[in-house]
Amino acid sequence: MSYANLIAGQWVPNERFSVNANPSDPSDIVGEYAQADVAQLDAAVAAAQAAFPAWSTGGIQARADALDRIGMEIHARRDELGALLAREEGKTRPEAIGEVTRAGYLFRFFAGECVRLSGETLPSVRPGVGVEITREPIGVVGLVTPWNFPIAIPAWKIAPALAFGNCVVFKPADLVPGSAWALAEIIHRSGIPAGVFNLVMGRGSVIGDRLVTHPGIAAVSFTGSVEVGRRIAVQCAEHGKKVQLEMGGKNPQVVLDDADLQQAVELCVQSAFFSTGQRCTASSRLIVTEGIHDRFIAAMAARMASLKVGDALTAGTDIGPASSRSQMEQDLKYIDIARSEGGRLVAGGQRIACHTGSGKEGYFVEPTLFADTLPAMRINREEVFGPVASIIRVRDYDEALAVANDTEFGLSSGIATTSLKYATHFKRHSQAGMVMVNLPTAGVDYHVPFGGRKGSSYGPREQGRYAQEFFTIVKTAYTQA
Predict the structure, then answer these.
(1) How far apart are CA 426 and CA 384, in angstroms?
(2) How many helices (H) and strands (E) does the chain have?
(3) Which residues are part of the catalytic machinery?
(4) Residue 78: strand, helix, or coil
(5) What does each C-alpha distance from 307 to 23, 44, 78, 319, 369 come to in angstroms?
(6) Which residues are within 8 A (CB) of 231 and not within 5 positions of it... i.e. 6 or more apart?
(7) Largest Cα span, the chain
(8) DSSP helix/strand/coil, 122
(9) In CATH, what number is assigned to the domain containing residue 151?
(10) Residue 437 pairs with which residues in a beta bridge?
């Protein structure tokens, strides 16, 4: 089946399509999705510009009602949409349904934000003058999203953009257009006027630069690779655009001697390997103090042996495939690098050619754990984005904190400990935007800020009430009585 782009309220086809295949079974074709060209991108921006005056000044209740309808439909169809997500991206069905559920809550949360946008009234230093500080939408925003969360990340960008009165041109990752198209179709039927929301599917190499540099785009929100994000930052600066970037991570998980061993193992397994390790918040550096080190390795190996790798849609699967052949090959490359650097393979390390009992040639990689690694090794410096983790042995908490912070990234970090002293100190001194105590580093709430420090993030935070910092602009008005 073929799927078109959404421009000015109309489904617009193109002669060029991309084939969306199931990474659990590449012979299973999800659909063919239109590849937008520059002319269609320009048309989408023009439609958004035309719709902006009425949408940005229209009734906030209509906005709230539309976003609430979107969220409610997403929740009503969570099983169907979750199956689609698992089929095209490779998350297990339960994980995919969880992501869809989160997307629904994001729209429902921002439905409420439509009527909660606040300002300030202050006295002027001049007698008889009043001052009002308000927030207004910034215009047409370009949203560029990654393949690893194909409905949740679009939701946490689209929902606040619309809630605060902006119009949207949305370009999803070329690898996972199915979930994006399904979300766009729901938005299209929500009652939002034509042109307020536009979907342009296609390769970044074809329409990406035009989206970022287009004079009709006032701001760009991007989640993806460090390399692309840094280029977008430069382009936005050159063109005077507001920019929001979420990029890479090399997240540390500290395990101290006093940690509950089983709890520490479970949260490390979830952080490192669930969702096939394809999360920017995944912890791939496990920093373990020497008193618990050997017991932790043994317990991790035992827990990993119980994990079932297979088809994302099969009941009982713990870990699905890499999202694509190229991602699988990258995972295997880093496994080879870790071996060559002297890492000791504890578990995994191989491609699984077929899902047992099905014969399907998918992109499956064993959850892989290395021990005896050093902080300077590439396996501990570069983001793998797969089910690969390494253990770094340290003497004590102080060394653990220093190693945890020794990275160019700063998205998420975690500590497993029963010590209030160390937990409190780590929360304050960990150089990360999000800190977890006795919880997986991956897994965040929809109503609070998301974002990191250093090379992980640039610009205002996403999600929660902090989303207004990016999607609105402050106006100060003076009135003489």
Answers:
(1) 25
(2) 14, 25
(3) 280
(4) helix
(5) 19, 45, 25, 7, 13
(6) none
(7) 82
(8) strand
(9) 3.40.605.10
(10) 415
pLDDT at position 68: 98
Q: Are residues 258 and 229 in the same domain?
A: no
d(CA 64, CA 67): 5
Say whether both 162 and 255 belong to one domain: no
Q: Which amino acid is at 399?
A: E
What pLDDT score was predicted for residue 360?
65
DSSP tag of 275: G
pLDDT by residue (tens digit) across 331-361? 999 999 999 999 999 999 999 986 544 556 8
Q: Of the candidates 44, 326, 313, 74, which has an alpha carbon nearest to the alpha carbon of residue 175?
A: 326
The per-residue pLDDT for 251 is: 98
pTM for the full predicted model: 0.96
Specify the long-range contacts of residues 333-341, CB closer than 8 Å, at least 24 apart. 334/378, 334/379, 334/382, 334/384, 334/386, 334/388, 335/368, 335/388, 337/378, 337/379, 338/370, 338/373, 338/377, 338/378, 338/379, 338/388, 338/390, 341/373, 341/377, 341/378, 341/379
Q: How many C-beta neighbours within 10 Å does residue 227 have?
A: 10
Contacts of 282 (CB under 8 A, 6+ apart): 249, 251, 271, 272, 275, 385, 441, 442
Q: Which two tokens stand for residue 205?
A: 């190499």
Q: How many CB atoms lie within 10 A of CB 310?
A: 24
Q: Which residue has the tokens 């729901």?
A: 186
* Domain CATH for 415: 3.40.309.10
